[in-house]
Amino acid sequence: MLLAQLTEACGAPGQEGEVRDLIRTEIAPYVDEIKTDALGNLIAVKNPNGKGPKVMLAAHMDEVALMITSIEKNGYLRFKPIGGIDPRVLVAKTVVVGAKKIPGVIGSKPIHLQRPEERQRALSIQELQIDIGVKSKEEAEKLVSLGECAYFTTKYEEFGSGKVKAKALDDRVGCSLVIELLKEDFSFPLYAAFTVQEEVGLRGSGVAAYQIEPDIALVLEGTTASDVPGTDEHKHATSVGKGPAITFMDRTVIPNPKLVQELLDLAAEKGIPAQARRATTGGTDGGQIQLTKTGSKVAVIAVPCRYIHSAVSVMSKKDYEAAFLLVKNYLQRLQEREG
User: Fold this and answer.
1) Residue from 8, 63, 198, 199 carrying the catalytic annotation
2) What pLDDT, in 10s, does the model give residues 163-203?
3) How far, in Å, CA of 251 to CA of 83, rounded?
4) CA angle, corner 291, sides to 40 and 251, nearest 5?
5) 16 is catalytic
């Protein structure tokens, strides 16, 4: 399954090559042109000379990860997070490190050796290390290099009532949606931008938009679902199982109001479940795309995912399917209107 392949691939910010190669192979039969720019964005186009508005679909390839910053004399690896990772989720997680995917475990001082005051707080990044099963720095250096990244090892799995658990749903779910949409037939110029380094500052999307100069841009994301114990319902940013979330505002972007309303009206008309993203924190590639060159009309459509930026996230297959239907219907409606 495509989404399984995408989530199990490894691609830290600035090191998205494995994901990019997978996507290139998947989309090549369905597009007219495809290229990788200097920053690493993968940009593809259908109907470059078609009539109608230039539409950009954007999804970022990178995932949060851990970069190896030093190797200790005893062979343990020290690391720093790339992107927003809560240190509390790291202890005892299994990882693979670097291009060779060396297996490792994130370890810490065991609880029975901790002082009472240490047991009352979360461990910091500085108190954690990756154990790759060697006994010296020299052994470790034969397997791992500084600057390589460690990735969670979670496998894609379907469970419960139509749910999926996997790593990197933020934003391999968006990548998967864009790939599937490229397989559909449209007559206007349709660009797909699989962007890099979103998790460290939305870096790739502005570069991609500068080249494409879209009239309309739809950003497809995996976003925070907060329908979990301990969070009051009125504070739920999004909820799993209620359809894709449409953003009104976040830290980086205020999407085009008419475009947002059109998407909501279309969802209601077609009976596609959809919800408003009720949080204004975080940011997406839409923030950079909207501001590039002379600007673009932007909307953000996201699949709600519980526990993002951790070793495993959870989403609903129905939300994924509804997101696909909503964007497909919008593009079809756009084609009918402009045709």
Assistant:
1) 198
2) 999 999 999 999 999 999 999 999 999 999 999 999 999 99
3) 16
4) 90
5) no
Strands (E), 111-208: 129-131, 149-152, 157-159, 163-166, 190-195
Q: What is the dihedral of CA 127, 129, 310, 247, to 10 degrees?
A: 70
Q: In the chain, what are the domains?
A: 2-63+167-338 (3.40.630.10), 66-152 (2.40.30.40)
**Nearest in space to 301 (alpha carbons), one of 257, 263, 339, 256:** 263
Cα–Cα distance measured from residue 146 to residue 143, given in angstroms and rounded to the nearest whole number: 10
Burial class, 68, CB count within 10 angstroms (exposed 0-12 / middle 13-18 / buried 19+) = buried
The pTM (predicted TM-score) of the whole model is 0.94
Interval 26-71: pLDDT, tens: 999 999 999 999 999 999 999 999 999 999 999 999 999 999 999 9
How far apart CA 298 and CA 289 sit, in angstroms, is 8
